[in-house]
Amino acid sequence: MRWLVLALSLVGAGGCLQIDSPDGSLICSTVPGRACPEGFYCGGDNRCYRGHSPMSCSAVLQCELICLPNGCNDNCLAAATDQATRLWNEAFQCALGYCLAPGNGIPPQCTGPNDPSSACRFCFKSVFDATLGPYGSAHACATQAEACRNDL
Asked: Shortest CA distance to 95 belongs to which of 63, 120, 70?
């Protein structure tokens, strides 16, 4: 009978160890490599959330720069944070304005935000490459691109 009580106690205790807390209710630990329970990640607010860590704007930018020349259909924003999405949209709108506007010294390279042409993709990549290069601070989109790049 004692074995049965012991076995039931151990089974019952095992169920108590399962983590069933709402996202953000656990504070990240300072133990390296174990900040949060398995299946959780430590967010920027030092709280644990389910799933995988969302992407920063800097990561979205790198994803897009890899994607742009080939015109791939990867959705780099799918896992982005709200801030990363906002910063990316600001940088994207600036680049779009540059690639659409006839007043920048080049003929319009894009017909709109969903233009799949290689000329449009090349223009976007050129804008981001120029803004992140050594002389990028002089580019019209430098402020937006730099804010995105610094979102780590």
From this structure: 120
